[in-house]
Amino acid sequence: MISATIITGFLGSGKTTLLNRLLKHPAAGNSVVVINEFGEIGIDHLTVAYPAENVRLLANGCMCCQTKGDLVDTLTELSGRRASAELPPFDRLFIETTGLADPVPIVREIVGDEQLSAVYRLDRVITVVDAVHLHSQLHRHDEARKQLAIADIVFLSKTNMVDPAELAEVNAAVRRIGPGAEVLSAAHGEIDPRRLLEAAPGTGRRRMARWLERTEQDAAVQAHSPHTHGIATFSASLAAPISKAGLATWLSMLASFKGLQLLRVKGIVSVAGEPYAVDVVQSVVHAPRRLDAWPTADVRTRLVFIVRELTREAIEKTFSAFAMGESLPGTRQFDPSAYARFRKVADQFIALEDVTAPPRPGRPSVAQ
After folding, report:
1. Nearest to residue 44, comparing CAs of 94, 85, 79?
2. 10 Å Cβ neighbour count for 197?
3. If we measure between CA atoms, which residue out of 286, 158, 139, 278 comes closest to residue 212?
4. 3-class SS at 129?
5. Residues 71-102: pLDDT tens digits?
6. Is CATH 3.30.1220.10 correct for 204-366?
7. What residue ranges do the domains of the chain occupy?
8. Mean pLDDT, range 309-336, rounded to an integer
9. What letter would DSSP give residue 300?
């Protein structure tokens, strides 16, 4: 599988500067780069210090809308030329988005497209944050909040241009909207590239344990701040094991009816006593992945929600879907009593949708 890294961040945050530093490291030697620019004339790709044959430009459009088809075509073309040896073998893909991009549709294409998901594995989303202008960007632009909310790593740039008190406020804002993300900082884009390029520390279960710990800590910080821009973070835990059917039903319902309000759902679920990692980005549902062991001694289901205009109570009511049993013995039917309970709560959940909320998204994209 080709490891895909998305580098996003608002206009002028320093994405190309960071990308150039990463590409100079030996670990990035076998990489290709896809750069999206907004405007009739592309400039940024000309400043990327990398062989031209390994760089692709998607120009005159935002990758999240006009150029979605171009992205799929470009990634398909790259993997095809790799397979036919027309390109040197590469095992890493960098996608640098335009500063105006909502990165969620890009995640959706890599995770949900049947052909792409067979070749590319989404490794991480790196969000570059301009420490000088973050507060005004968060106040004015929903894209800036989205870029933070789905980040796996937040890279703070221009930290030398703000005083310690302002930097503390920037860190607090990042933790409010992007809880759980690893936060790194640099004054002039100076950072050891290995921290961003090498495999994330530990196995999948250790990564999940760190994410849960950071997110739960940052949720406590957020709870005491009024400046969250309508975004809330909370966690939930359940002791009883969940069936595969119950988990699939619940994920589908959430993504279908509340996708636009679910910025991120991540955690570990006890499926018949076995640990499964769950990751949802709006209406994009990553296929639940079985871990080799529980991350900690806590063997309960633990989920963290980053939501917008959605309450904890509304989410907790949906947990009745977890009661869905597997098929009845000798049939292909679900347990009818469990389904009736779930349907009642699902109807209530749908009815809770605020008339001022954004329209419902289409079918969720689910990685197979």
Report:
1. 94
2. 18
3. 278
4. strand
5. 888 899 889 988 998 888 888 899 988 887 78
6. yes
7. 2-197, 204-366
8. 68
9. S
